[in-house]
Amino acid sequence: MNEISENYKRIVESVEKARKDFKRDDKVRIMAVTKGVAYEKVNHAIELGINLLGENRAQEFLQKHPFYSKKAKIHFIGGLQNNKVKYIIDKVSVIESADSVKLLSEINRRAAAHSLTMDVLVEINIGCEWSKNGIEAGLLPGLLAEADALENVRLRGLMAIPPIDAGEQIYADMQRLYEDARAQVKQPDKFDTLSMGMSGDYITAIKHGANIIRIGSALFGSR
Ligand SMILES: *Cc1c(COP(=O)(O)O)cnc(C)c1O
User: What span, in angstroms and rounded, lies between the C-alpha atoms of 19 and 214?
Assistant: First the structure.
């Protein structure tokens, strides 16, 4: 547990340094990614001041969720099958991994059934890797137009997992895509989130406008 505390301190310091270095005066939120991490450790991170959790796997999330401290918001960040939406819809505040009209329609339908509006990020497969979730950048304008028509879905921004060996241009491309998307959507003032950067690349991501960084191993230790 001590290790988590030291890791967290180190991450906060380097985020603050990056914000100064890159003249980012807006906020950068640190998300704790919980896959494979026991709920006790997750709650410890929340006690240290983490107020945002990232969940990858619906089933693991549903098992741990009852034991989580209620002080943190939860974002779903993993590949999401249509038939799992109903289980998580009332337990998360943002679905970051929306990547098809079909999935967005199901989120819309289930959100309506709970009389809520679900905040979503569209996941972009920015490295065009066949193994990754997310839509191709070129398909984004069409997807945004369709999502804007859904009453119980609110478009809040974009999410991406740049390839391991991505050069800086990929991050710059992602920032550009985010800005173009904001110029397109119906409610640009609500479109305010760029979720990008993990343990190995969050400094580069902050340089290119990320305002949520998703941290697993640098916080909890390697999986
Ligand atoms: C696992 C995971 C992370 C965190 O990865 P680390 O390299 O351990 O920080 C972030 N985002 C997603 C979508 C993940 O699956």
Answer: 16
Instruction: For residues 141 and 162, give the distance between their C-alpha atoms in angstroms, rounded to a whole number.
Output: 20
List of the chain residues with pLDDT < 50: none
Enter the tokens of residue 24. Answer: 């980012």
By the 8 A CB rule, do 120 and 95 touch?
Answer: yes
By most ligand atoms within 8 Å of CB, the mutation choice from 15, 53, 56 for ligand 1 is: 56
List Cα–Cα distances, 100 to 78, 124, 185, in angstroms.
Answer: 14, 10, 16
**Token digits for 73?**
């918001």
What residue type is 162 in one-letter code?
P
Q: Which of 84, 109, 115 is nearest to 97 (CA)?
A: 84
Rounded to an integer, what distance in angstroms lies between the CA atom of residue 203 and that of residue 133? Answer: 23
Residues 76, 88: Cα–Cα separation, whole Å: 8
How far is C-alpha 222 from the geometric centre of its chain's CA atoms?
20
Q: Measured in angstroms, how far is the CA atom of residue 33 from the centroid of ligand 1? A: 6
The full length of the chain comes to 223
Helices 168-184 and 140-148, packing angle to 10 deg: 30
AA identity, residue 57: R
Nearest protein Cα to ligand 1, atom 6? 216
Residues 6+ apart with CB under 8 A from 189: none
The pLDDT score that the predictor gives to residue 214 is 98
User: According to the model, what pLDDT value does residue 9 have?
Assistant: 97
